[in-house]
Design brief:
Number of helices: 5
Order of helices and strands: HEEHHEEHEH
Structural class: alpha+beta
CATH topology of one domain: Herpes Virus-1
Helix content: 25-40%
Shape: globular
Largest sheet: 3 strands, antiparallel
CATH architecture of one domain: 2-Layer Sandwich
Strand order of the largest sheet: 2-1-3
Radius of gyration: 16 Å
Strand content: 15-25%
Number of strands: 5
């Protein structure tokens, strides 16, 4: 039915426009996150998660946490945002389909949700939070040392 197809295309366009505005992460029908928030500013307030390297603004991490690392509770405790993110990172890559991206596999971020990621962070996740990763059966790869 062409009316149903037009309605579906309109909904897809609205979701795409919301993503471009950097709104909240998209939600799937089952309540899971479809994509991470897109940074709504590209200034000095950008930060990268030390575990998954997702890039958002400080305020976005504070308000919504990290979509890949909800167990770090960044949305519940501002100190966790400071401890688990860094403003010291190199480059940004935007991933639309991490499962199929050779770059995502090369960067070890192929299992994360679509979003903006840094190429590299130079700081390690504090030991206390590395323990939280282990407790949640989540892998953590420390940054490579030159």
């Amino acid at each position: 039915d062409s009316t149903e197809a037009n309605s579906r295309r309109g909904e897809e366009r609205r979701r795409g426009e919301a993503r471009m505005r950097g709104g909240g992460g998209g939600m799937m029908d089952d309540g899971g996150v479809e994509h991470a928030q897109i940074p709504n500013s590209f200034g000095h307030e950008l930060r990268a998660c030390l575990r998954c390297r997702l890039v958002k603004t400080y305020d976005q991490f504070r308000e919504n946490g990290c979509e890949n690392c909800p167990f770090l509770d960044m949305d519940k405790d501002r100190d966790n945002v400071v401890s688990c993110t860094t403003a010291n990172f190199t480059g940004i890559i935007s991933l639309m389909d991490p499962n199929r991206s050779w770059a995502a596999r090369w960067l070890r971020i192929g299992r994360f949700i679509p979003g903006c990621y840094t190429l590299a962070v130079s700081e390690e996740l504090p030991e206390e939070y590395q323990g939280m990763c282990q407790d949640n059966n989540v892998q953590y790869f420390p940054p490579k040392r030159p």
